[in-house]
Design brief:
heterodimer; A: abc type-2 transporter like fold; 5 strands; B: 377 residues; abc type-2 transporter like fold; 2 domains; 66% helix
Chain lengths: 377, 377
């Protein structure tokens, strides 16, 4: 029995490594994808291109604009002299934010009155607009507070000390500099392991069937479950090696802190790979051609990635979809990855996620083996 | 080139697609499924973050501040704790995304005047959500602070104290700042890439793998006729699917369509030529379906997903990557889609992107038409 499984494993390894291109695909593509994902996926908003229309040109208006220019969130790219130019810049997409200060801004302030500042935002990318608006509010309220203090000092210096103010102290935890990368790189490990292993497994049985070698294997004394085990074991090994490679390169290249335990991460990866293998096997039993397998794998990957919380916060999706997302093994693995990397927590916190994957894999495997029996006959 | 041979090739290809009921179903179902996934699943609009409060004082004023948080629609009060360890545990387990900690001397300090700090502990792993959480809590605290100041000024007899700035923000193109409006149009590009590059890349590779290419070579059909015949059915399918997508976007998701249909049609046709030619080119080079699918994933799907500006803004990428996006055809198409849908851009404004597509269509089309040699090695 063991001998037969071993023979299957050897055959699979030979098949995978026989052609150079598949070796390249196994090792190089995850790294390329890692680099692209690492650099491209960011929701940080910095250096937003900004246009300024200052019709007042007082020391107050210049001070306010200078605060925008000095922050790393806004880059002042254009100084315009009338309102039409603002419309043009925003419509062409050359400016995302425009500040419009009317004449009289400074004199209003000096009289202790409220002065208007108009902010026009290109909302095409709602996220950028929303975050930029947050920065606008931050800068303007700093300006307002400072101005108010100065004003008070001039008019009634004694009262200034007594004026109560509540300030928010920001304490970002786990990702102290709020870098998108710290969030995405650990997440990418899960995504790439999924894409890579699912594709390989889904193709495994189908190719034999399509080329006609499945019948040849079936006339040998090998049993079905031995065949399945022999088929999936190599992909498990390859998947683990791939996952480890991505994790090491990603952590080192992007300097992501690793605060948890390697053991917990490995356990998570093993459980997740079992889930992916079982899904891949299922796909390969329900597909007759490689094309079908490919499309099916694609149709699993897409929702799995979207519902995993990898890039999009799960708090904002409708409840029905959130229930579906509980069937997504990647959802659990992503939590494990990020928690181990950044929170440094262990099994006492992550056991629900581990348990979910440990339940998913055997159920899916059983279904696949059952389907496989039927698909052979 | 003879028309009847092209028609014969196209008919053969059509029959092959139609015969495989599942592939057909997938091709028909893909646009609505992807549309629904991205329309509902991909949502960057943060809603109601789980909030914990730790009120170390429990005074009238601290409760008042917490009421301000409770009434904000951005927070959902899910827990109250009376010690730090419990709070940290809730954050570790992900039950709490933001915690407000009020110091034990809050009201005393507030009544004495001067600034009082309130801590916001935010799980910042997802930096984008953390950013918004800070911005929303900042505005809650600012609102509370302004109220306290007004009371204070009243007591001091400073009735005339006014807040110096009035920020009037106006958002263009996506007035309600819905992430759906900027993501959904891009799905059209994604669907076209999947069908055009992914499915098409499998077709010639399949002929090689199954050995039917030799049969084709022995017929009088010319390489260019093979290409057009192979690609024509997928062209038709893509046209139908992308129209369906546009319809779902406009009437299903109510994404505003402000531009002109002609621009959309022209650019879509150009982009289709590019993705189909790419798919064909890959399948000629790859020879096996597994390799073909890997290459098309790497050169078609991933760049369209990550580097086209579909979700992740190009102007926030590192310089090198930003330059690299210029050789991604989807970049131009996604830019046109967003222009046509949200901005209502005229064809003149989009000429740069259109020229980019024309260039790609010519280069990739020429390469594809020369790629297939009717020889066996």
């Amino acid at each position: 029995m063991l001998a037969r499984i071993r023979q299957m494993v050897i055959k699979e390894f030979i098949q995978v490594f026989r052609d150079r291109s598949s070796l390249f695909l196994l090792l190089a593509t995850p790294i390329i994808q890692l680099l692209i994902l690492g650099y491209a996926t960011t929701f940080e908003v910095r250096h937003v291109s900004t246009a300024v229309l200052d019709l007042d040109n007082s020391s107050e208006s210049r001070d306010l604009i200078a605060r925008f220019g000095a922050s790393r969130y806004f880059d002042i790219r254009a100084w315009v002299s009338d309102r039409r130019q603002i419309s043009e810049l925003i419509t062409r997409g050359d400016a995302t934010v425009a500040l419009h200060i009317n004449a009289g801004f400074g004199s209003h302030l000096r009289k202790g009155e409220t002065a208007p500042l108009q902010v026009i935002l290109d909302g095409t990318n709602s996220n950028i607009a929303l975050v930029a608006l947050g920065y606008v509010n931050q800068i303007t309220s700093d300006f307002a507070r400072d101005y108010q203090n100065k004003f008070q000092q001039r008019t009634s210096p004694l009262l200034l000390k007594q004026m109560p103010t509540v300030v928010l102290e920001r304490r970002p935890m786990f990702n102290e500099d709020m870098q998108s990368r710290w969030n995405f790189i650990p997440g990418v490990i899960g995504i790439l392991a999924l894409i890579q292993v699912l594709m390989l497994t889904a193709f495994a049985v189908v190719r034999e069937r399509e080329i006609g070698t499945l019948e040849q294997v079936m006339v040998t004394p090998i049993r079905r479950w031995e065949f399945i085990l022999g088929k999936t074991l190599p992909f498990f090994v390859i998947g683990f090696a791939d996952g480890a490679l991505i994790a090491i390169v990603g952590t080192a290249w992007f300097r992501i802190p690793f605060r948890g335990s390697l053991g917990v991460l490995s356990l998570g990866l093993v459980l997740f790979l079992l889930c992916v293998l079982s899904v891949g096997l299922f796909i390969s039993t329900v597909s007759k051609t490689q094309g079908q397998a490919l499309i099916s794998a694609f149709f699993f990957n897409d929702p799995a990635i979207i519902f995993s919380g990898f890039a999009f916060p799960m708090t904002s999706i409708p409840p029905i979809l959130r229930w579906i997302s509980y069937l997504d093994p990647l959802l659990y693995f992503e939590v494990v990855l990020r928690s181990v990397y950044l929170k440094g927590v262990g099994l006492n916190v992550l056991w629900p996620q581990m348990l979910a994957m440990a339940v998913f894999a055997p159920i899916m495997f059983t279904i696949s083996v059952f389907r496989f029996h039927k698909s052979i006959d | 080139m003879r028309a009847y041979r092209v028609v014969a090739m196209a008919r053969k290809e059509f029959v092959q697609i139609l015969r495989d009921a599942r592939s057909l179903a997938i091709v028909v179902l893909m646009p609505p499924v992807l549309m629904l996934l991205f329309g509902y699943g991909v949502n960057l609009d943060t809603s109601a973050l789980p909030l914990y409060v730790f009120d170390r004082e429990g005074s009238q004023q601290s409760q008042d501040l917490l009421k301000h948080f409770q009434s904000s629609r951005y927070f959902d009060l899910v827990g109250t704790v009376d010690n730090y360890p419990a709070l940290l545990r809730a954050i570790d387990e992900g039950r709490c995304r933001i915690a407000i900690v009020i110091p034990p001397d809050f009201s005393k300090k507030l009544n004495a005047g001067g600034p009082v700090g309130v801590q916001a502990l935010v799980d910042a792993i997802d930096d984008n959500t953390a950013n918004l959480a800070f911005s929303y809590s900042e505005s809650v605290v600012r609102g509370f602070s302004a109220g306290v100041q007004l009371d204070w000024a009243h007591r001091q007899g400073l009735a005339g104290l006014q807040y110096p700035l009035n920020v009037q923000s106006r958002v263009w193109f996506n007035e309600e700042l819905q992430s759906r409006a900027f993501i959904v149009p891009g799905v059209i590009a994604l669907v076209m890439t999947v069908i055009g590059t992914f499915l098409t890349s499998l077709t010639v590779a399949r002929e090689w793998e199954r050995g039917t290419m030799e049969q084709l070579i022995s017929t009088p059909v010319q390489p260019s006729e093979i290409m057009i015949g192979k690609v024509a059915p997928y062209f038709l399918i893509s046209v139908i699917d992308s129209t369906l997508c546009a319809a779902i976007a406009i009437w299903g998701f109510r994404v505003p369509f402000r531009g002109n249909w002609g621009t959309l049609l022209i650019s879509s046709a150009l982009f289709l030529v590019v993705v189909l030619a790419m798919g064909y080119l890959i399948s000629v080079v790859a020879k096996t379906q597994l390799t073909a699918s890997h290459i098309s994933l790497l050169t078609g799907f991933l760049p369209t997903f990550l580097l086209s500006g579909f979700i992740y803004p190009i102007d926030q990428m590192p310089v090198v990557l930003r330059a690299f996006t210029h050789i991604i055809p989807a970049r131009y198409y996604v830019s046109i889609l967003k222009g046509v849908f949200l901005r209502g851009s005229s064809i003149g404004l989009l000429r740069g992107d259109l020229l980019g597509l024309v260039g790609f269509a010519m280069v990739v089309g020429t390469l594809a038409s020369r790629s297939l040699q009717k020889t066996l090695d």
